[in-house]
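SEVERITY: medium
COMPONENT: batch folding queue
REPORTER: lab tech (J.R.)

DESCRIPTION
The queue accepted two submissions in a row. Attaching both inputs and their returned structure tokens so the on-call engineer can compare them side by side.

ATTACHMENT 1
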Amino acid sequence: MTESELITAWVKARGHIIASQAAPTFLLTAIVGFLALGLGATELSVRIAAAGILLASGIFGALAQIAAANEGLAVITDLRGLETPTALTRSIVTMAPWVNVVRFVTPAIFVIVYIALLAALFLTAR
């Protein structure tokens, strides 16, 4: 692939990384709002359904983030192999450690938030 094609692939991968953050962020925010409106006091079946929706979408979101990050890192690997990289390519290559945040840190944060929401759904006083 040419440098231009690789940069285009990077832009697409970066767009997928950004997009993969939107749905889980919206869902987590919505559940917090629903908890404030009384979700934690609803019937057990409703709370279990909310927990299941969170878990399923969280797994899907994490997989999408990891896949997009892996694609981005593959592009960076190819960009590193160019003999005469442009300044833009060198800038993209320096992003490699930050792409790992999407692969590891973001899913870990989701797990922490998920556990906190489970506690709010099932352990709070009614």
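ATTACHMENT 2
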Amino acid sequence: MAQVATTRRAFLRGSALRVARGYYPPGVTEESVRNCSGCAECEKACPTQVILMRDGVPTVDFSAGECTFCGQCSERCPERVFPPEPAVSFAHHAVIADTCLALNFVDCQACRDACPTTAIRFKPRLGGPFVPVLDTDACTGCGACISVCPTRSITMTANTREGAHA
């Protein structure tokens, strides 16, 4: 199953890491998912029920909730799909769109309240409600902010680590 962005915008926004309306579970890669037999043991083991099998491949649906990185999916997997050590973050982080209520002068801090790593903070703004600021280094990509956002203004994008220019 190839992961290909169908537009330039999708590619530039990191949508190449998306898998048919979802993301791979933590630590699962395009290469490792080829070992998946589609047994769905990871889906059954997920206590937050965010792992779903789509076309015989495990994906994570953040609209259902968050990943707690408990490692139960990895423990139950009979193949070598997951890394030997449980992952503690995804290869992506949250992005807050311009449709965010707080950015449009409506008081909302639901994402901050849901974030287990306090990666989303709110800073004061003159003449309006506080605005969200995302610390991408603190964001684990768990998706806790996605399911609570009333305007679905939070998505994920691939982590990029650019080196310093000489």
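NOTES FROM REPORTER
The mean pLDDT is 86.
No errors were logged for either attachment.
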